[in-house]
């Protein structure tokens, strides 16, 4: 597809349409000059210069315009014949080129078989996998002492933007890190329930499931494989205990066109205050959620970028004097630290 700027108007042309327009314009130009100068249709017939002495008419050498039109017609016919066959022979859209060739258009000085080219291909290949929509649902499950249990479920609709190249090397990591200044009984600070990837052409792939989380952190790598233009689903579900008053930083690992955040309060007796700071904003949005309630409407973020953008969420129960010495006795507190099975 090509764009032609015609006095400020953008006209879109395919190669075939552009060739057709050029041929028609050339023919009309030659016909116009021929009619204007009387080469064609003189006395409603062909001009005298194509007649021979055998017709009983004295031969008259052709004029300049007659020679011009004859030569132009010959050139147009040659262009139509030879040009069209050359066009058919080389009728290939650049978007159908190999991935290496496409990258080489941007970096012509990089050899196609070099390590540098492999590195560039890997980077661009990763960026071709995007999240069309991400839905994250956080449920406030329980309070124990100075700890707050958060259950998080995430659904991501992913897509390979390549129309003729498979995505086979996109690697990611799900990493969960507990608060380092909190001691958890038995060292258990959470549980992962589900981490799966499913595509249109492959069955569901279980990366992790039903595992208690202990130690310094939980980290599991995964690979996303998508056919050209294929979509898939990435799902995760986990629970974590965290210190009340500590904010949670949320990032994305791929460019996300639409990000939706929902928060539910599953506590029977406590209202919670939620402070949400979206990327690009310095001031948080403060919302109070009643017991067994939820956000009035989801938090929506468009064009959520990896690495640079951060979504900050701070959840504090009300009353929140538990942040101090932990002396407040909440109805949801248990006698001992337990983790739901």
Put the structure in a nutshell.
The protein has 341 residues and is an alpha+beta fold.
List the helices and strands and how they pair.
Layout: E1 2-6, E2 9-13, H1 15-36, H2 64-89, H3 99-106, H4 115-127, E3 129-144, E4 147-160, E5 167-176, E6 188-199, E7 205-214, E8 218-226, E9 231-243, E10 248-250, E11 256-265, E12 271-277, E13 285-289, E14 299-304, E15 311-318
Parallel strand pairs: 3-11
Antiparallel strand pairs: 1-2, 3-4, 4-9, 5-8, 6-7, 6-9, 10-15, 11-14, 12-13, 12-15
Helix pairs in contact: 1-2, 3-4
Fold and architecture overview:
Helix 1 (15-36) packs antiparallel against helix 2 (64-89) and helix 3 crosses helix 4 (115-127). The longest helix is centred in the N-terminal third of the chain and has 26 residues, at 64-89. The chain has 4 helices and 15 strands. By secondary structure, it is an alpha+beta fold. It has 3 domains: 2-91, no CATH class; 93-127, no CATH class; 128-323, Sandwich (Immunoglobulin-like), CATH 2.60.40. The chain has helices at 15-36, 64-89, 99-106, 115-127, and strands at 2-6, 9-13, 129-144, 147-160, 167-176, 188-199, 205-214, 218-226, 231-243, 248-250, 256-265, 271-277, 285-289, 299-304, 311-318. The strands form 4 sheets. A 7-stranded mixed beta sheet has the order 7-6-9-4-3-11-14.
């Amino acid at each position: 597809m090509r764009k032609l700027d015609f006095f400020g108007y953008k006209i879109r042309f395919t190669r075939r349409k552009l060739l057709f327009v050029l041929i028609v314009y050339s023919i009309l130009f030659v016909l116009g000059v021929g009619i204007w100068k009387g080469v064609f249709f003189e006395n409603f017939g062909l001009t005298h210069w194509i007649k021979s002495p055998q017709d009983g008419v004295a031969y008259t050498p052709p004029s300049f315009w007659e020679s011009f039109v004859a030569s132009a017609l010959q050139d147009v016919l040659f262009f139509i014949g030879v040009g069209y066959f050359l066009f058919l022979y080389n009728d290939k859209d650049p978007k159908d080129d190999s991935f290496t060739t496409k990258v080489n258009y941007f970096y012509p000085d990089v050899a196609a078989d070099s390590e540098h080219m492999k590195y560039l291909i890997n980077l661009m290949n990763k960026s071709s996998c995007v999240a069309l929509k991400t839905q994250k649902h956080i449920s406030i499950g329980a309070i124990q002492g100075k700890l707050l249990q958060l259950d998080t479920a995430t659904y991501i609709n992913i897509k390979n933007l390549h129309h003729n190249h498979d995505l086979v090397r996109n690697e990611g990591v799900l990493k969960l890190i507990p608060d380092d200044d909190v001691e958890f009984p038995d060292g258990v600070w959470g549980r992962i329930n589900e981490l799966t990837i499913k595509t249109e052409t492959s069955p569901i792939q279980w990366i992790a499931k039903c595992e208690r989380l202990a130690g310094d952190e939980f980290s599991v790598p995964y690979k996303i494989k998508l056919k050209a233009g294929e979509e898939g689903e990435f799902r995760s579900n986990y629970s974590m205990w965290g210190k009340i008053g500590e904010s949670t930083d949320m990032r994305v690992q791929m460019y996300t066109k639409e990000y939706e955040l929902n928060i539910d309060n599953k506590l029977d007796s406590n209202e919670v205050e939620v402070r949400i700071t979206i990327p690009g904003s310095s001031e948080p949005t403060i919302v109070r959620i009643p017991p067994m309630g939820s956000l009035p409407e989801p938090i929506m973020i468009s064009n959520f970028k990896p690495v640079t953008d951060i979504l900050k969420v701070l959840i504090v129960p009300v009353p929140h004097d538990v942040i101090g010495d932990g002396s407040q006795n909440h109805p949801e507190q248990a006698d001992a630290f337990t983790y739901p099975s």
